[in-house]
Predict the structure.
Amino acid sequence: MAKQLQARRLEGTEHNPWVEYVKLANECKDAVNLGQGFPNFPPPDFAVEAFQRAVSGDYMLNQYTMAFGHPPLTKVLASFFGKLLGQELDPLTNVLVTVGAYGALFTAFQALVDEGDEVIIIEPFFDCYEPMTLMAGGRPVFVSLKQSPSQDQDQISSSSWQLDATELASKFTARTKVLVLNTPNNPLGKVFSKAELELVASLCQQHDVLCISDEVYQWLVYDGNQHISIASLPGMWERTLTIGSAGKTFSVTGWKVGWVLGPENIMKHLRTVHQNSIYHCPTQAQAAVAQCLEQEQLLFGQPSSYFVQLPQALQRRRDHMIRSLQSVGFKPVAPQGGYFLTVDISDFKSKMPDLPGAAHEPYDRRFAKWMIKNKGLVAIPVSIFYSRPHQKDFNHYIRFCFAKEEATLQAMDEKLQKWKAELKF
């Protein structure tokens, strides 16, 4: 009976679209993969050197460390983020190191969500939030960011996608346990403003709701925008779990080191889940991340800081991609942060509405497959970041990743120039 209940909960989430699009990309020999969200440029030298020292230095780093985090890492996380959040963090009770931010998310959902609890998820959302809610026995409740009219249709920003305060408030009920926040947002790249965060904070406090704040792209903000952690707002530390990622922070997604920060009365439940599932994360990767953060703490705010240099480099790549995609008729939504560029394909939808695919398949999915096969460019359909009832309303966007080396962007340019030439005939 329990297995049948679990199967019903996950119905509709078992299909992983990532597998499908990666397979298509691999089948197209010269495709330029701008779909998956990872850098294909080298990490900074100091990160590689830190990992090399961890592997070749102290032989005890080949063994277990503390189950809830390697002490040098939990210490620097507490020190560094304590200042940013305005809290005195205890490395032993306020910090948990996990197998990537993905592991932090799963641990948080398992620890906090019980059977029948409602979890508010802001759309578009990182696609694991829904199945993780269901696996814990919860019920996802969705509220969509809506695009407000822009005076300049050629320069649309992710900031124009906003929450409707009345609609958001209507989603809170006596069963609401958690609200999931993602800023900067994947896939939009929206950086939530202080006013927007204050709205969320006010409703969470009013209804005694916990907040899981996924902030893996916190250092990747552009155009002078500022990332604000909701846990730093008055009254929110006590009810917020803040999740971070070494992979996104230092361009080392394969190291799979993440963390979660929060108050002891909540963190103790995450430690119980962690202790009885993962138990322990690789020691050497944790040691390397600790050294990286120690260096960045010393350089914080200086021009030589990686936290300054990486967003500068990515903003240039973002702007390059925007210009190139506009040349063939895409309408980019310029992201304020993150790895990703969402583009509007409405014009293509009106010009070629009958692309191959199943009748029920959202247009953006058919377009993405057509583009891979016919243009050699890989992107991800944005409808997969929405709940089923809302996918039809957001089926005219696709997502590109611009965290790529210059050679990859040049290969993209060549594909787009060929496409542009074809449009003239």
The chain has a mean pLDDT of 94. The radius of gyration is 21 Å. The longest strand covers residues 176-182. The domain at 14-43+305-423 is CATH 3.90.1150.10 (Aspartate Aminotransferase, domain 1).
